[in-house]
Design a protein that fits this description.
The complex is a heterotrimer of chains A (346), B (331) and C (495).
Chain A: H1 27-49, H2 56-81, H3 89-104, H4 111-135, H5 140-159, H6 169-176, E1 178-179, E2 182-183, H7 184-202, H8 204-214, H9 216-221, H10 226-252, H11 261-274, H12 285-304, H13 309-328
Antiparallel strand pairs in A: 1-2
Helix pairs in contact in A: 1-12, 2-7, 2-8, 2-10, 2-11, 2-12, 3-4, 3-5, 3-10, 3-11, 4-5, 4-10, 6-10, 7-8, 8-10, 11-12, 11-13, 12-13
Chain B: H1 3-9, H2 24-49, H3 51-54, H4 56-81, H5 89-103, H6 108-135, H7 140-158, H8 168-175, E1 177-178, E2 182-183, H9 184-202, H10 204-214, H11 216-221, H12 226-252, H13 263-273, H14 285-304, H15 309-330
Antiparallel strand pairs in B: 1-2
Chain C: E1 3-12, E2 15-25, E3 30-34, H1 41-48, E4 56-61, E5 64-65, H2 71-76, E6 79-82, H3 94-98, H4 113-126, H5 142-155, E7 160-164, H6 172-187, E8 191-195, H7 199-205, E9 208-213, E10 216-222, H8 228-236, E11 254-263, E12 270-275, E13 279-283, H9 290-298, E14 303-310, E15 313-315, H10 320-325, E16 328-331, H11 335-338, H12 346-358, H13 369-379, H14 396-407, E17 414-418, H15 426-441, E18 445-449, H16 453-459, E19 462-467, E20 470-475, H17 482-489
Parallel strand pairs in C: 3-8, 3-9, 6-7, 7-8, 13-18, 13-19, 16-17, 17-18
Antiparallel strand pairs in C: 1-2, 1-4, 4-5, 9-10, 11-12, 11-14, 14-15, 19-20
Classes of the chains: A mainly alpha (346), B mainly alpha (331), C alpha/beta (495).
Chain lengths: 346, 331, 495
């Protein structure tokens, strides 16, 4: 019953002749607007619940806090859109911090070479994930989970189990300083958002993740080199997790084993699915950006209300399930997903 | 039936070299035999090498280590058989240790009360997971990711730091060693493994799990109540996570709000190594038992041979991936 | 009267699938149900099987009214539906499949596997089906799976057996075994509803024929008193042109030369030429290797031996991308799995391939894309309210046109099409033939596999017959007759 086969001449409506006449919002557009509304509501809500937070500088601070999660989530989005998952991102963040601080030891001249090295390493780890997933039948969940152990073991062996070192001034600038009132990391973040939004919309690498996620076999038959694109998707995830590691390291300045880990991994999945990304090739970078902002906003609001880690975890779980349930609900029930019921030619 | 008859009916284009309609049972037995061979090798080789490995203490150690993760993996087998996953299993193990360590008090009555609370919590988690998946159409990965987060939070509220106390009657009921070697917790695991193998093969529910895993739509048309079975699957999974949590609590003599978290993915790895695949409908409990033993023996061997915990991390990651690559090639 | 369906109506969004249809079946009768795709046969039978709930109408079984709302109700009423896509669960054994949803349990709820195996074996033996209860369904050939499904129905006292195109996936020999089985069931007083497009079978097998058209009941005829022509007229409502008029004069230069091609398992030593502007038909039974041959040429299936020359240059694709780059496109048979992104919109589906191949350093050229897609949508008459419509909302014919459209802007030289009109209604069928003709007129070489011989005879310049992985005969336009091609593709030798 998957294909309705009835199609009567006479009952058929042909496509309208002028391309731009009937513009209605795409699924991603509707989700982005709804999420933006949620963000505004949360902003005012936090102003009421926690007085003193209704200021531009607070908003910017929340924005700054959202940067590392957002970077991770953008990378993770590429993987999720292909139908996969990357459980190694949290450990890549920690690895970046541990190895980065040790190699830099606060020296200014070490910043660029070390950052280059780590970006290469993070991307390589991602590409390795992608390669095993593309060329064998190991599920992404298992591969990237195994990789998280490998990465953790690697930086533990490297450091001998004791964190040492600190970041270079450049990284400190990126992670903690501001230009005027605007955090440097936020500027970097905006540049990354624009770049990767452009990549998903206008390059074959970015576009293909949607096709692969929706139907990998059809993607193969449509001329997409699926394996190479999986390497790209997981590589991007590793790359952006490394960048998130830079921003976080720049902020806390020293080596810390608790900097990334499972919490970041799961938060980035949460941000992506709250942003409307599915494992079947529907979603957008913008969705993940808004999703990570909402998660940070809720976390920050709960902090200012004195709610502990446990309450935040509970909230995260509820938000994930609620949002996905709303996205999955039949069209007529869901206000977020409502669209004109357009009878196709059947 | 005659061979001639069969030859006439079969399509001439069948791939050569594959047995005509190879018996499902013999294929499975072959796989089991091979996994069992691996288990034997992983026992015999280190035992020949190291006296420490063949000491009774170490046997006890292996068996008591296998019990909690084994129980969780028994449950995890069902979601994976139906192309799902239960990410809430690990946090539920943590939550159970926490509940046990705070609810049991000091006497036998307290133990029973604690057990009741733990089981109720497990059933509630399973029910919610199942209903979110079947009624709200949320994919299992996301549904259980959500409950995983919620359960972790609840565990932290009840017991923010490792601690609490599980009374002696309870630990005795799990840790008492038969013949000074075999801990009761392992006996429970073995009994539950046999029980589950029986349920999966000899009850309607078990067969329906396989049917839903093999082809959900076809199962529905054949009259299988797919939604109820799915809820049942996540109930069973949560129930076994709870049992695993109880075994862990006894081993630790206390509760820990995060100690069970790694169980999620370790149990998934054990199930996959045991030959159950995410493609659904293939595999089962015997494989999972082998998978659990392989993982347990591996950890203990690495410890015995003094491999640093850091290197162990790397090795276990590599080995899990290689094992899954291998078992997916075999199919 | 075993079964009576009266005044059955069913509407789907935008279409009246069934409009007050009547149908009846006697005990010991094979009653054929005919009609074009979309005529409402499947809907009617799905209603009988409890898969679809009708808007109106009554069903009587043995003269008593029965309410059938779910598959279980149909089973209880003695109706068994042998779907074209069999309803078996592949990883499980025959025995296990037999009893899904109605396990034999003892009073403690424990399954009695011994009783199950006995009953299963007894039924299989009674019907002389050479299958062991422990055989895994995934390992059985299609024909045996079908028999297992029939045996399963009989094990539970089915009185009415619906068979939906049971011979589309099996060989001629297997078909004969199936017909013997049907004959036995008939003598035992079962009623059989037989859906098929193959006239020979209808005349060989059935006692009466009922024809539906556009969701309406057209008539019922005793098979002995009707003719091929009358049935076609009833189904189509007009006479069908015997042969399509070709737009171009004759084929041009050799475009694709295939020499000694061997591929994965089913393709053995295939050699042929395809000329520009030519439509070559590939005839063969299911399992003859047509799909594999096309997919080997397309790079989707492993090329074992042999060589191909495309426009004078050696051509050896590793993945479909190489083929598309070289100007070879493939419209697959299984379009939902291999051709379409159901959740994505028409524009994405149409533009995916061109975007991939025409990108410069990875950058997709977006300018003019909506216009180009609109142009294709109009050229192919794809009925969709907008190019932003998700493809899953389109009908079978329109989905197929979307797959065609995907390759029309990629420098197409050779088009491989596999069952292009399967699951496509009459109107869209004609349009697809026109598209093929237009492409041929533009100089594209087309290799078309189809299991509907009349279609090949109508559209193609030449027909190559394939049997057991080999190209066994070729027919020019004049020599190609239904009988000759059928003879060759079923293993008959020809000189």
């Amino acid at each position: 019953m998957s294909e309705p086969t009835t199609n009567r001449p006479g009952g058929v409506r042909n496509v309208s002749a002028s391309p731009g006449r009937r513009r209605h919002l795409t699924r991603e557009g509707r989700i982005a607007l709804s999420l933006a509304a949620v963000i505004i509501i949360l902003f005012f809500l936090s102003g009421i619940l926690a007085p003193g937070t209704l200021t531009l500088s607070h908003a910017l601070e929340v924005g700054r806090q959202a940067v590392p999660l957002g970077l991770t989530a953008i990378g993770h989005t590429f993987v999720i859109l292909t139908g996969g998952i990357d459980l190694s991102v949290g450990e890549i963040i920690t690895m970046t911090n541990i190895i980065g601080t040790d190699l830099m030891r606060g020296r200014p001249e070490a910043a660029l070479p070390v950052m280059g090295l780590l970006l290469g390493l993070g991307t390589l780890i991602g590409v390795l994930n992608g390669a095993v997933i593309a060329y064998t039948r190991v599920p992404p969940l298992v591969m990237t989970f195994g990789m998280s152990f490998i990465v953790r073991g690697f930086y533990l062996i490297y450091s001998g189990g004791t964190p040492k070192g600190s970041v270079s001034p450049l990284l400190r600038t990126i992670g903690a300083e501001r230009i005027g009132i605007i955090p440097v990391s936020l500027l970097l973040y905006i540049a990354v958002i624009l770049l990767f939004a452009l990549i998903t919309r206008r390059t074959v690498w970015g576009r293909s993740v949607f096709f692969i996620g929706n139907n990998p076999q059809a993607a193969h038959y449509s001329g997409i080199p699926v394996k190479a694109r999986l390497l790209f998707a997981y590589g991007t995830s590793g790359l952006l997790a490394t960048m998130a590691g830079f921003v976080l390291s720049g902020y806390i300045r020293i080596a810390n084993f608790d900097i990334g880990g499972e919490a970041y991994t799961l938060n980035s999945v949460a941000a992506a699915v709250v942003g409307g990304n599915t494992f079947t090739g529907q979603g957008s970078v913008l969705g993940s950006v808004l999703g990570s902002f909402i998660i940070t906003q809720v976390t920050s609001l709960m902090t200012s209300l004195g709610v502990g880690e446990s309450g935040k975890l509970i909230m995260r779980g509820v938000v994930i399930v609620a949002m996905v349930a709303i996205y999955a609900a039949p069209a007529q029930w869901s206000f977020l997903m409502r669209r004109r019921q357009a009878p196709a030619g059947r | 039936m005659t061979d001639g008859n069969r030859a006439r009916l079969s399509s001439p284009n069948r791939p050569k070299g594959r047995p005509q309609g190879g018996s499902a049972r013999t294929a499975m037995q072959r796989d089991m035999l091979m996994l069992f061979g691996v288990v034997v090798l992983m026992t015999v080789i280190p035992a020949l090498w190291s006296p420490a490995f063949r000491s009774p203490q170490n046997v006890t150690n292996v068996l008591s280590q296998v019990a909690p993760i084994g129980l969780v993996a028994l449950g995890q087998t069902l979601p994976i058989l139906t192309r799902g996953i239960d990410l809430a299993a690990g946090p539920l193990v943590s939550l159970t240790t926490v509940l046990a360590a705070t609810m049991m008090g000091f006497d036998t009555v307290g133990v029973l009360r604690g057990l009741a609370v733990c089981l109720a919590a497990g059933l509630a988690v399973g029910l919610v997971n199942g209903l979110v998946i079947t009624r709200l159409n949320v994919p299992p990965l996301i549904a259980t990711l959500g409950s995983m987060s919620v359960i972790s939070g609840v565990a932290l509220i009840i017991l923010p730091h490792p601690g609490g106390y599980v009374p002696r009657p309870f630990t005795q009921a799990l840790l008492y060693r038969i013949g000074d070697v075999v801990p009761l917790s392992f006996v429970y695991f073995a009994v539950f493994a046999i029980l589950m193998a029986f349920i999966m093969n000899y009850t309607r529910f078990g067969r329906w799990v396989y049917a839903v895993g093999g082809h959900e739509e076809h199962a529905r048309v054949a009259g299988v109540p797919v939604r109820r079975v799915t809820v049942g699957i996540y109930l069973v999974s949560s129930l076994f996570a709870t049992l695993g949590g109880l075994a862990l609590a006894a081993r630790m003599y206390s509760g820990d709000p995060v100690a069970g978290h790694p169980f999620t993915l370790t149990s998934v790895a054990a199930v996959l190594i045991g030959g159950t695949t995410f493609e659904g409908g293939r595999g089962g409990i015997p494989g999972t038992v082998m998978g659990v033993l392989i993982m347990g023996l591996l950890t203990v061997s690495l410890n015995i041979f003094g491999v640093s915990p850091f290197v162990q991390d790397v090795l276990s990651g590599v080995i899990v991936v290689l094992a899954v690559i291998y078992s997916s090639i075999r199919k | 009267m075993l079964l009576q369906m009266r005044g059955i109506s069913k509407a789907f969004p935008g279409v009246q699938a069934l409009d007050s249809v009547d149908f009846e079946l006697r005990a010991g009768e094979v009653h054929a149900l005919m009609g074009e795709n979309g005529a409402g046969k499947s809907t009617l039978m799905n209603i009988l099987g409890g898969v679809i709930v009708p808007d109106a109408g009554e069903i009587f079984i043995n003269g008593r009214p029965r309410l059938i709302r779910r598959p279980v109700d149909a089973q209880a009423a003695g109706v068994a539906f042998i779907h074209q896509e069999l309803n078996l669960i592949e990883p499980l054994s025959v025995k296990e499949n037999f009893f899904i949803g109605r396990e034999l349990v003892n009073r403690w709820g424990v399954i009695d596997w011994k009783a199950a195996a006995d009953r299963c074996r007894r039924v299989l033996e009674e019907l002389s089906i050479p299958v062991h209860p422990d055989d895994r369904v995934a390992d059985l050939p299609m024909a045996l799976r079908q028999m297992v499904e029939i045996a399963k129905a009989l094990a539970f006292e089915a009185q009415i057996i619906v068979m939906d195109e049971p011979t589309s996936a099996i060989t001629v020999q297997e078909t004969q075994v199936l017909f013997d089985l049907i004959g036995r069931l008939k003598r035992e007083g079962k009623g059989i509803i037989y859906i098929s497009h193959r006239m020979e079978e209808i005349f060989q097998l059935s006692d009466r024929v009922t024809v539906l058209r556009n969701g309406r009941y057209i008539g019922t005829r005793p098979t002995a008193e009707t003719t091929h022509e009358e049935l076609v007229r009833m189904m189509v409502g007009r006479s069908v042109p015997a042969r399509l008029k070709k737009a171009n004069d004759g084929p041009g230069r050799v475009l694709l030369e295939v020499r000694g091609l061997s591929g994965n398992r089913r393709v053995k030593d295939a050699s042929f030429e395809l000329r520009a502007g030519e439509i070559v038909g590939l005839a063969g039974l299911r399992g003859a290797g047509r799909t594999e041959l096309l997919e080997t040429i397309f790079g989707a299936s492993l090329l074992r031996a042999g060589e191909m020359i495309l426009d004078g240059r050696p051509y050896a694709p590793r993945i479909p991308r190489d083929a598309i780059r070289a100007g070879i496109a493939y419209v697959p048979e299984d379009r939902v799995r291999k051709g379409l992104f159901l959740d994505l919109d028409v524009k994405e589906n149409v533009y995916v391939t061109a975007a991939e191949l025409q990108a410069q350093a990875g950058w997709i050229r977006e300018r003019g894309v909506p216009e180009r897609v609109h142009g294709l949508v109009e050229e192919l008459k794809i009925a969709t309210p907008s190019i932003r419509q998700a493809v899953k909302n389109l009908s079978g014919g329109n989905r197929q046109k979307v797959v065609f459209a995907k390759f029309l802007s990629t420098g197409l030289r050779v088009l491989l099409v596999n069952e292009p009109t399967r699951g496509v209604d009459v109107g869209a069928k004609a349009e697809i033939y026109q598209v093929l003709n237009r492409l041929a007129a533009r100089g594209v070489g087309i290799l078309m596999a189809s299991s509907e011989l009349p279609e090949l005879l109508m559209v193609c310049d030449r027909i190559i017959a394939m049997w057991e992985g080999r190209l066994v005969a070729a027919f020019g336009r004049e020599e190609a007759t239904q009988e000759a091609v059928l003879h060759a593709m079923t293993g008959g030798t020809r000189e």
